[in-house]
Amino acid sequence: MLVRPLDVGAPFHVEATVRLLQRRAANRVDVWLDECYSRALPTAAGLIAVEVRDHGSVDAPDVRYTLRGGSFGADFGAMERSLRRLLGADSDPHLLSRVAAIDCGTAVSADAHRALEATALALRGVRIPRYPTLFEAFANVVPFQQVSLDAGIAIVGRLVGRFGGEVRHGGRRYAAFPSAAAIAGADTAALRACGLSARKAETLRNLARMVDSGSLSEAALERSDSEEAAKILRGLPGIGPWSAALVLLRGLGRTDVFPPGDVGARRVLGGLLNLGADAGIERI
Protein backbone atom coordinates (compact mmCIF):
# COMPACT_ATOMS: atom_id res chain seq x y z
CA MET A 1 0.00 0.00 0.00
CA LEU A 2 1.20 3.49 -0.85
CA VAL A 3 -0.52 6.79 0.01
CA ARG A 4 0.14 10.01 -1.90
CA PRO A 5 -1.43 13.49 -1.83
CA LEU A 6 -3.52 14.86 -4.71
CA ASP A 7 -3.39 18.65 -4.78
CA VAL A 8 -6.89 20.04 -5.38
CA GLY A 9 -7.99 23.59 -4.65
CA ALA A 10 -11.13 24.56 -2.74
CA PRO A 11 -14.00 24.20 -2.99
CA PHE A 12 -13.97 20.52 -3.93
CA HIS A 13 -16.95 18.21 -3.38
CA VAL A 14 -15.56 14.72 -3.92
CA GLU A 15 -18.77 12.73 -3.65
CA ALA A 16 -20.82 15.03 -5.88
CA THR A 17 -18.10 14.87 -8.53
CA VAL A 18 -17.87 11.07 -8.36
CA ARG A 19 -21.66 10.73 -8.54
CA LEU A 20 -21.62 12.82 -11.70
CA LEU A 21 -18.86 10.66 -13.12
CA GLN A 22 -20.49 7.31 -12.33
CA ARG A 23 -24.06 8.37 -13.27
CA ARG A 24 -25.52 5.35 -11.48
CA ALA A 25 -24.42 3.42 -8.39
CA ALA A 26 -24.45 0.29 -10.59
CA ASN A 27 -21.32 1.56 -12.37
CA ARG A 28 -18.81 -1.29 -11.99
CA VAL A 29 -15.68 0.77 -12.66
CA ASP A 30 -16.18 4.08 -10.86
CA VAL A 31 -17.25 3.10 -7.35
CA TRP A 32 -18.25 5.26 -4.38
CA LEU A 33 -18.28 3.25 -1.16
CA ASP A 34 -17.68 4.22 2.47
CA GLU A 35 -16.75 7.83 1.60
CA CYS A 36 -14.15 6.58 -0.86
CA TYR A 37 -13.83 6.64 -4.65
CA SER A 38 -12.13 3.64 -6.21
CA ARG A 39 -11.33 2.11 -9.57
CA ALA A 40 -8.54 0.20 -11.32
CA LEU A 41 -6.21 2.15 -13.59
CA PRO A 42 -3.79 0.82 -16.20
CA THR A 43 -0.09 1.61 -15.84
CA ALA A 44 3.02 0.55 -17.70
CA ALA A 45 3.51 -2.04 -14.95
CA GLY A 46 -0.05 -3.39 -15.21
CA LEU A 47 -3.34 -2.64 -13.50
CA ILE A 48 -3.35 -1.05 -10.08
CA ALA A 49 -6.20 -0.28 -7.69
CA VAL A 50 -6.60 3.35 -6.67
CA GLU A 51 -8.69 4.68 -3.78
CA VAL A 52 -9.32 8.40 -3.25
CA ARG A 53 -10.47 10.01 -0.01
CA ASP A 54 -10.86 13.59 1.15
CA HIS A 55 -9.60 13.80 4.72
CA GLY A 56 -10.62 17.46 4.84
CA SER A 57 -13.81 19.20 3.75
CA VAL A 58 -15.36 20.89 0.73
CA ASP A 59 -13.80 24.20 1.74
CA ALA A 60 -10.50 22.77 2.95
CA PRO A 61 -9.84 19.62 0.91
CA ASP A 62 -7.11 17.21 1.95
CA VAL A 63 -7.27 14.67 -0.86
CA ARG A 64 -5.07 11.60 -0.81
CA TYR A 65 -4.99 8.53 -3.01
CA THR A 66 -3.96 5.04 -2.01
CA LEU A 67 -2.46 2.46 -4.36
CA ARG A 68 -3.25 -1.18 -3.75
CA GLY A 69 -2.67 -4.56 -5.35
CA GLY A 70 -0.13 -3.66 -8.01
CA SER A 71 3.40 -2.54 -8.74
CA PHE A 72 4.40 0.66 -6.99
CA GLY A 73 7.03 1.26 -9.63
CA ALA A 74 4.27 2.78 -11.70
CA ASP A 75 4.49 6.15 -13.39
CA PHE A 76 2.94 8.39 -10.74
CA GLY A 77 2.84 11.33 -13.12
CA ALA A 78 0.61 9.48 -15.61
CA MET A 79 -1.55 8.09 -12.82
CA GLU A 80 -2.08 11.48 -11.24
CA ARG A 81 -2.97 12.97 -14.60
CA SER A 82 -5.65 10.30 -15.01
CA LEU A 83 -6.98 10.94 -11.51
CA ARG A 84 -7.04 14.69 -11.97
CA ARG A 85 -8.95 14.25 -15.21
CA LEU A 86 -11.41 11.74 -13.73
CA LEU A 87 -12.12 14.04 -10.78
CA GLY A 88 -12.07 17.30 -12.73
CA ALA A 89 -9.36 18.54 -10.37
CA ASP A 90 -8.24 21.23 -12.81
CA SER A 91 -11.72 22.36 -13.88
CA ASP A 92 -13.30 25.59 -12.70
CA PRO A 93 -14.64 25.09 -9.14
CA HIS A 94 -16.80 28.23 -9.33
CA LEU A 95 -18.51 27.56 -12.66
CA LEU A 96 -21.95 26.72 -11.23
CA SER A 97 -21.99 29.65 -8.82
CA ARG A 98 -21.06 32.06 -11.63
CA VAL A 99 -23.84 30.69 -13.82
CA ALA A 100 -26.32 31.07 -10.96
CA ALA A 101 -25.21 34.68 -10.44
CA ILE A 102 -25.95 35.72 -14.03
CA ASP A 103 -28.68 38.35 -14.28
CA CYS A 104 -31.25 36.64 -16.49
CA GLY A 105 -33.51 39.69 -16.54
CA THR A 106 -37.01 38.65 -17.58
CA ALA A 107 -35.82 35.43 -19.23
CA VAL A 108 -36.67 33.43 -16.09
CA SER A 109 -38.82 34.11 -13.05
CA ALA A 110 -37.45 35.12 -9.68
CA ASP A 111 -38.48 31.71 -8.31
CA ALA A 112 -36.56 29.96 -11.08
CA HIS A 113 -33.50 32.05 -10.39
CA ARG A 114 -33.68 31.18 -6.70
CA ALA A 115 -33.97 27.49 -7.64
CA LEU A 116 -30.85 27.80 -9.79
CA GLU A 117 -28.98 29.50 -6.95
CA ALA A 118 -30.09 26.75 -4.53
CA THR A 119 -28.90 24.07 -6.95
CA ALA A 120 -25.51 25.75 -7.33
CA LEU A 121 -25.20 25.99 -3.55
CA ALA A 122 -26.10 22.31 -3.06
CA LEU A 123 -23.48 21.34 -5.63
CA ARG A 124 -20.84 23.76 -4.44
CA GLY A 125 -17.42 22.34 -5.23
CA VAL A 126 -18.62 19.85 -7.83
CA ARG A 127 -16.12 19.57 -10.66
CA ILE A 128 -16.54 18.52 -14.27
CA PRO A 129 -15.21 14.94 -14.51
CA ARG A 130 -13.78 13.52 -17.71
CA TYR A 131 -13.23 9.97 -18.84
CA PRO A 132 -9.52 9.15 -18.72
CA THR A 133 -9.21 8.17 -22.39
CA LEU A 134 -10.90 9.01 -25.67
CA PHE A 135 -11.97 5.40 -26.14
CA GLU A 136 -13.60 5.25 -22.71
CA ALA A 137 -15.59 8.33 -23.67
CA PHE A 138 -16.80 6.63 -26.87
CA ALA A 139 -17.63 3.46 -24.95
CA ASN A 140 -19.71 5.50 -22.50
CA VAL A 141 -21.67 7.13 -25.30
CA VAL A 142 -22.33 4.57 -28.05
CA PRO A 143 -24.15 2.02 -25.80
CA PHE A 144 -26.47 4.79 -24.57
CA GLN A 145 -27.70 5.83 -28.01
CA GLN A 146 -31.51 5.71 -28.02
CA VAL A 147 -31.81 3.65 -24.81
CA SER A 148 -32.44 4.56 -21.20
CA LEU A 149 -29.62 5.49 -18.84
CA ASP A 150 -30.15 2.31 -16.83
CA ALA A 151 -30.07 0.14 -19.96
CA GLY A 152 -26.86 1.80 -21.10
CA ILE A 153 -25.23 1.31 -17.70
CA ALA A 154 -26.16 -2.40 -17.82
CA ILE A 155 -24.61 -2.82 -21.27
CA VAL A 156 -21.39 -1.07 -20.25
CA GLY A 157 -21.30 -3.23 -17.11
CA ARG A 158 -21.38 -6.35 -19.25
CA LEU A 159 -18.63 -4.98 -21.50
CA VAL A 160 -16.53 -4.35 -18.40
CA GLY A 161 -17.20 -7.83 -17.06
CA ARG A 162 -16.29 -9.54 -20.34
CA PHE A 163 -13.46 -7.41 -21.71
CA GLY A 164 -12.08 -5.42 -18.77
CA GLY A 165 -9.48 -6.52 -16.27
CA GLU A 166 -9.56 -6.40 -12.50
CA VAL A 167 -7.35 -6.05 -9.46
CA ARG A 168 -7.99 -8.17 -6.37
CA HIS A 169 -6.81 -6.93 -3.03
CA GLY A 170 -7.96 -7.45 0.53
CA GLY A 171 -11.05 -9.37 -0.51
CA ARG A 172 -12.17 -6.64 -2.94
CA ARG A 173 -12.29 -6.58 -6.71
CA TYR A 174 -11.49 -3.34 -8.52
CA ALA A 175 -12.77 -3.35 -12.10
CA ALA A 176 -10.86 -1.81 -14.99
CA PHE A 177 -12.49 -0.41 -18.10
CA PRO A 178 -11.78 -2.39 -21.30
CA SER A 179 -8.93 -1.03 -23.41
CA ALA A 180 -9.39 0.01 -27.01
CA ALA A 181 -7.23 -2.96 -28.01
CA ALA A 182 -9.52 -5.40 -26.18
CA ILE A 183 -12.64 -4.16 -27.99
CA ALA A 184 -10.81 -3.81 -31.31
CA GLY A 185 -10.04 -7.53 -31.21
CA ALA A 186 -13.50 -8.66 -30.13
CA ASP A 187 -15.86 -10.44 -32.49
CA THR A 188 -19.34 -9.14 -33.21
CA ALA A 189 -21.10 -12.01 -31.43
CA ALA A 190 -19.22 -11.32 -28.17
CA LEU A 191 -20.08 -7.63 -28.32
CA ARG A 192 -23.72 -8.35 -29.09
CA ALA A 193 -23.86 -10.74 -26.16
CA CYS A 194 -23.23 -7.70 -23.96
CA GLY A 195 -26.44 -6.13 -25.23
CA LEU A 196 -25.19 -4.02 -28.14
CA SER A 197 -27.13 -4.02 -31.37
CA ALA A 198 -25.27 -5.16 -34.49
CA ARG A 199 -24.86 -1.54 -35.58
CA LYS A 200 -23.58 -0.36 -32.22
CA ALA A 201 -21.22 -3.33 -31.94
CA GLU A 202 -19.71 -2.48 -35.31
CA THR A 203 -19.53 1.23 -34.44
CA LEU A 204 -17.77 0.61 -31.12
CA ARG A 205 -15.32 -1.89 -32.59
CA ASN A 206 -14.45 0.44 -35.50
CA LEU A 207 -13.87 3.31 -33.06
CA ALA A 208 -11.69 1.05 -30.90
CA ARG A 209 -9.61 0.08 -33.91
CA MET A 210 -9.17 3.71 -34.96
CA VAL A 211 -8.10 4.77 -31.46
CA ASP A 212 -5.85 1.74 -31.01
CA SER A 213 -4.13 2.32 -34.37
CA GLY A 214 -3.73 6.05 -33.76
CA SER A 215 -5.73 7.06 -36.83
CA LEU A 216 -8.10 8.85 -34.44
CA SER A 217 -6.40 10.60 -31.56
CA GLU A 218 -7.40 12.89 -28.76
CA ALA A 219 -4.45 15.12 -29.54
CA ALA A 220 -5.88 15.86 -33.00
CA LEU A 221 -9.26 16.73 -31.51
CA GLU A 222 -7.63 18.91 -28.84
CA ARG A 223 -6.00 21.01 -31.56
CA SER A 224 -9.43 21.84 -33.01
CA ASP A 225 -12.02 24.20 -31.62
CA SER A 226 -15.29 22.62 -30.51
CA GLU A 227 -17.11 23.28 -33.78
CA GLU A 228 -14.38 21.71 -35.89
CA ALA A 229 -13.90 18.81 -33.44
CA ALA A 230 -17.63 18.10 -33.53
CA LYS A 231 -17.50 18.06 -37.32
CA ILE A 232 -14.66 15.53 -37.23
CA LEU A 233 -16.60 13.31 -34.83
CA ARG A 234 -19.83 13.55 -36.82
CA GLY A 235 -17.89 12.26 -39.81
CA LEU A 236 -17.31 8.95 -38.04
CA PRO A 237 -19.77 6.11 -38.79
CA GLY A 238 -22.36 5.77 -36.03
CA ILE A 239 -21.61 9.16 -34.43
CA GLY A 240 -24.29 11.82 -34.78
CA PRO A 241 -24.65 15.30 -33.24
CA TRP A 242 -25.76 14.00 -29.82
CA SER A 243 -22.92 11.49 -29.54
CA ALA A 244 -20.31 13.95 -30.83
CA ALA A 245 -21.34 16.56 -28.26
CA LEU A 246 -21.20 14.06 -25.40
CA VAL A 247 -17.75 12.85 -26.41
CA LEU A 248 -16.56 16.47 -26.44
CA LEU A 249 -18.20 17.24 -23.11
CA ARG A 250 -17.37 14.10 -21.14
CA GLY A 251 -14.19 13.14 -22.97
CA LEU A 252 -12.51 16.47 -23.72
CA GLY A 253 -14.17 18.65 -21.09
CA ARG A 254 -15.64 21.10 -23.61
CA THR A 255 -18.24 22.97 -21.59
CA ASP A 256 -19.23 25.13 -24.56
CA VAL A 257 -21.18 22.25 -26.13
CA PHE A 258 -24.50 20.66 -25.21
CA PRO A 259 -25.95 17.43 -26.63
CA PRO A 260 -28.83 18.40 -28.95
CA GLY A 261 -31.99 16.36 -28.69
CA ASP A 262 -31.33 15.25 -25.11
CA VAL A 263 -34.96 15.00 -23.99
CA GLY A 264 -34.17 14.12 -20.37
CA ALA A 265 -31.83 17.07 -19.87
CA ARG A 266 -34.28 19.41 -21.56
CA ARG A 267 -37.13 18.23 -19.33
CA VAL A 268 -35.17 18.58 -16.08
CA LEU A 269 -33.59 21.93 -16.94
CA GLY A 270 -36.86 23.30 -18.26
CA GLY A 271 -38.51 22.36 -14.98
CA LEU A 272 -35.73 23.85 -12.88
CA LEU A 273 -36.01 27.16 -14.69
CA ASN A 274 -39.85 27.12 -14.83
CA LEU A 275 -39.65 27.23 -18.61
CA GLY A 276 -41.74 24.11 -19.10
CA ALA A 277 -40.77 20.57 -20.08
CA ASP A 278 -41.03 21.43 -23.79
CA ALA A 279 -38.71 24.46 -23.69
CA GLY A 280 -36.10 24.34 -26.44
CA ILE A 281 -32.45 23.83 -25.58
CA GLU A 282 -31.60 27.14 -27.27
CA ARG A 283 -33.86 29.02 -24.85
CA ILE A 284 -32.56 27.08 -21.86
Question: What features would you describe in this structure?
Answer:
The structure is a single chain. The chain is α+β, with helices and mostly antiparallel strands. Helices cover 43% and strands 13% of the residues. The protein is built from 13 helices and seven strands. The strands form two sheets. It has a five-stranded antiparallel sheet with strand order 1-5-4-3-2, covered by helices on one side. It has a two-stranded antiparallel ribbon with strand order 6-7. The longest helix is centred in the last third of the chain and has 16 residues, at 198-213. The protein is globular. The model has no long low-confidence stretch (mean pLDDT 93).
Instruction: Output the strand order for the largest sheet.
Output: 1-5-4-3-2
Oligomer: single chain
Number of helices: 13
What structural class is derived from the secondary structure elements?
A: alpha+beta
Order of helices and strands: EHEEEEHHHHHEEHHHHHHH
Largest sheet: 5 strands, antiparallel
